[in-house]
Amino acid sequence: MEGFHFKTDIRVRYAEIDVQNVVFNSHYMTYLDIGISDYYRQGLKLDPRELSRQGIFDFVLAKCTLDFKQSAKLDDILHIWCRTVSIGRSSMTTEFVMTRAGETDPILLAEFVYVSINPSTKKSLPVPDVVRNRIEEFEQLA
Amino acid sequence: MEGFHFKTDIRVRYAEIDVQNVVFNSHYMTYLDIGISDYYRQGLKLDPRELSRQGIFDFVLAKCTLDFKQSAKLDDILHIWCRTVSIGRSSMTTEFVMTRAGETDPILLAEFVYVSINPSTKKSLPVPDVVRNRIEEFEQLA
Amino acid sequence: MEGFHFKTDIRVRYAEIDVQNVVFNSHYMTYLDIGISDYYRQGLKLDPRELSRQGIFDFVLAKCTLDFKQSAKLDDILHIWCRTVSIGRSSMTTEFVMTRAGETDPILLAEFVYVSINPSTKKSLPVPDVVRNRIEEFEQLA
Amino acid sequence: MEGFHFKTDIRVRYAEIDVQNVVFNSHYMTYLDIGISDYYRQGLKLDPRELSRQGIFDFVLAKCTLDFKQSAKLDDILHIWCRTVSIGRSSMTTEFVMTRAGETDPILLAEFVYVSINPSTKKSLPVPDVVRNRIEEFEQLA
Fold this sequence. Notes:
Chain A is 26% helix and 35% strand.
């Protein structure tokens, strides 16, 4: 996918299909959560759970937009493309594109705004340099 | 809630809480889905499953925006306020406000755009009059 | 239900229905978890989360048997009957019966064996007297 | 795993972890459902959804026993070993062993009894020869 440096794959499970024979809406949020988790660990080589345990950084979802183009179906292999498009003082904007394996037309386009928080107080926190620098390097944002 | 004629209540389940002790993101989509289902049946007195079985009407989510203000927690009783704000030819725009029982500050604001479809072909379909008229009456849109 | 002093109610959600139009298996476990949670809080008047935070007691599922008699369906109101049938040194055996509101034939019979653990070490622990006495009194086991 | 001819792998998702930092109970049922689905398609080379659409065969869970030995954790890669141990007139008994990748001590042992049903009437049905023969061959039961 043009402009993306990371993707992860998931396979749709029977438990995620509703009576209309398509993925129930809420599971797309879980798929994107897998996408952002893998983006940190496998793409950025940062471990958010460890950063949280050390009190350095955690992030929460502040706002999201999902634009559904098609329905995912049982046993579909889905590619979840993920990139950070901007970093503010304490927020990070991430774009997702979800496609079915072997296809280019998207199933879903999404934009998520995450806020950097202090893991103990849960208050917003400037994005720490360790995270900011790593993302800028990975995404060639700087 | 000013301007809303319908709400439904849900209680947060242990199974929905993540390791940060708050509701995991995807479950908010399930809560809003309960909201819209109850809005049809208890508010509008329409049964979407029955309309679908009769081949008259079904609806799918085309686009949504979620704006998270606070986190819901274990055993919270949540009010899900729901209203249709506009009806186009084949789309309907719904607003949700989620609050914790006894509080007025929202947990979540959301806007969902649903598309009216033919239940058999899954192609978009003008919103049938039975649905359009019922919503306009309920929401005093006309 | 003969021999039971506690029940809680849940309503089946659209998100829990699979393509066969019945509740997907895993959700029955969630329903029973709601049953045991409500049994502690509303029946026994004990708060397991608080007992865990205080380091006194927590419990984990060691073994369970589920015997499915019927399928639950969309919008069913389910009664979850729950009782402790025996307390060992560090284990507690709980029986569940699930029925549809207004019916007596069960949907599901289940037996769960929970083990009392130390919340910090996660090692098994004799069932504390505060819990044992409360259950024996509630169930008239002694 | 001695005596098993099939396994499938899953990775634990963040959405499946509860506040105790372990997999919430109900998700084990989903994992085993993935196990049996993959056993049919990749092991037995049978497609249960297709057999159901053709009106030949479907199966539902009648009874299950789960014996938890350890907790699965975030990002664990789990092996789900699956085999049919007996086939009756209209029932099939399946055993599962779940292990963490690289370990031999089980996380979970389970036995599931499935009943063969007519997909249209949902009534029990003798296990069709196409399924019985395929399982006997695969498991070398005969």
